[in-house]
Amino acid sequence: MPRIHPVAARQELLSKLFPAPAPEAPREARKELSLEMRYFIAGMYAGGSKSAAQISRELHIPVSTIKDTLASLRNDGLPKPILRTGRPRKMSERTTRAVVRYLLKNRRATAQELTNAVSHISPLHRDTVTKAILRLNFASRIAAKKPYLKPAHELARLNFAKKHEKWTVEDWKKVIWTDESSFEIGKNSRRIRV
């Protein structure tokens, strides 16, 4: 018979007498019950055959959740979830409307200019205004560059204007306008965001 070390023998005896508990499964994050599940719980309880504890065991939902659902049914008549308010926004509806108005008038305004423009309504940080702009689906883009007029283009436009200077409204009504475009005479080296 092989000889067993006394420490190993003691550990073996202890493990037989006091088996280690099975490791617990990690708890899953709970989600709010869907409206269909709330109605299902209400229907199971309304049948009168099941208690909250029985429903809990059958559906694997905590008893407290079942009881809360049934309590909302008794109080309001509908098994609806509790409304949660959360933290109120820093920007009021009035300030948000002012931001939209200012952005529509001044497409090239920076976030700091916009913050300064609405600061008389409520003092806000530039980052707060920037987040509101993004939430309102306004985005900052680099403006497309418009070609500058060359001296030949300017001369051609001047000749066109002199040639058609005497035209009447009736003459202009016969013209089909196919395109409108803007142009710049001077050069702006800075990239412009709109």
Helix content: 40-55%
User: What structural category characterises the helix and strand content?
Assistant: mainly alpha
Beta-strand residue fraction: under 5%
Oligomeric state of the chains present here? single chain
Q: Could you give the count of β-strands? A: 0
User: How would the global form be characterised?
Assistant: elongated
Supply Rg: 37 Å
Tally the helices: what do you get?
A: 9
Calculate the terminal CA-CA distance, rounded to whole Å: 89 Å
Main beta sheet strand tally, sense and closure: none
What's the order of the H and E elements?
Answer: HHHHHHHHH
Stretches where pLDDT falls below 50 for ≥5 residues? none
Q: How would you state the average pLDDT, rounded?
A: 80
GO molecular function: DNA binding
Organism: Entomortierella parvispora
Protein name: Transposase Tc1-like domain-containing protein
Domain Transposase Tc1-like: 97-164
Written account of the structure:
By secondary structure, this protein is an all-alpha fold. Among the domains are: 35-76; 86-159 and 188-194. The protein contains 9 helices and no strands. Helix 3 packs across helix 4 (63-76). The chain starts with 5 loop residues before the first helix and ends in a 21-residue tail after the last helix. The mean pLDDT is 80.
